[in-house]
Design a protein that fits this description.
The protein has eight helices and eight strands, in the order H-E-E-E-H-E-H-E-H-H-E-H-E-E-H-H. With about 240 residues, the protein is of the alpha/beta class. It has two domains: about 5-100 and about 155-225, Rossmann fold (3-Layer(aba) Sandwich), CATH 3.40.50; about 105-150, Helix hairpin bin (Helix Hairpins). Helix 6 links the parallel strand 6 and strand 7. Helix 2 (about 45-60) packs parallel to helix 7, helix 3 packs parallel to helix 7 (about 205-225) and helix 4 (about 105-125) crosses helix 5 (about 130-150). The longest helix is centred in the first third of the chain and has 20 residues, at about 45-60. The protein is elongated and about 70 Å long. The two termini are about 30 Å apart.
Length: about 240
């Protein structure tokens, strides 16, 4: 999609912030006014920040690196999972496990375990186990899939994180800082925009707002992927 217009953002409710009493003073440069006790986000600043974030996301995708999407809030999960899958990027939408990035080797072991269960259930090597044991394994596999399914094909730590609600996902933000990963985030008026490299001031509670910002981020990633130079093997298969 092309970059949304001011009116598009307005219609999606991107401008609605939190109650004044819940604000983070560091969001002052991104606040337009207060109305009935609620802070209103300056959409002109939102558009500027979307531009900056979009260019950086496209550049990362163009270089062939991965961008992980993080959104565990109920209203964001489906939107973000679908968006990430559309461009082949990893995502976490159920629960951020402590150490998911800083202790990635352990997480990889859990992913390997899930894949091994899949393989055993598919190839018939578990034919001798009881129905109860099979049910226990299936439940364990489904539990792992729920939490780790979005990163099952991720072999190394991503180059960047795109986060919906950096206040809610503070553990993910903290781990990204420790590893020096680039961070992009939807930042509402209750958050500290200095916690991420590319803050996008926006309502991070309404599904329409989340979808509009996420879809724009994905369109920039797609642009970067389309501009990525083909590898030698890709050139040979296209010939």
């Amino acid at each position: 999609m092309s970059k949304p217009s001011y009116k598009d953002l307005l219609d999606a409710g991107v401008h609605f912030g939190h109650l004044k009493k819940k604000w983070n003073p560091k969001m002052l440069p991104y606040i337009f006014m207060e109305r009935k006790g609620i802070h209103i986000i300056d959409l002109n600043r939102t558009l500027e920040c979307m531009d900056d974030a979009g260019k950086a996301l496209a550049q990362i995708a163009r270089s062939g690196k991965k961008i992980m999407f993080v959104a565990t809030k109920k209203q964001a999960r489906g939107i973000v999972a679908e968006a990430a899958r559309s461009v082949g990027m990893p995502y976490v939408t159920e629960r951020w496990l402590g150490g998911m990035m800083t202790n990635f080797a352990t997480i990889r072991k859990s992913i390997k375990k899930m894949n091994n269960i899949d393989k055993m259930l598919a190839d018939g090597s578990l034919s001798s186990i009881t129905k109860k044991e099979r049910l226990t394994l299936t439940r364990e596999r489904n539990k792992l899939e729920k939490v780790l399914g979005g990163i099952a094909n991720m072999n190394r730590i991503p180059a960047a994180l795109f986060i919906v609600d950096i206040h809610h996902e503070h553990i993910a933000v903290s781990e990204a800082h420790k590893l020096g990963l680039r961070t992009f985030g939807m930042v509402d008026t209750n958050s500290n925009p200095n916690q991420v490299d590319f803050p996008i001031p926006a309502n991070d509670d309404a599904s329409k707002s989340i979808k509009m910002i996420t879809d724009y981020a994905v369109s920039c990633i797609k642009k970067g992927l389309d501009e990525r130079p083909k590898s030698k093997s890709e050139q040979e298969s296209a010939a």
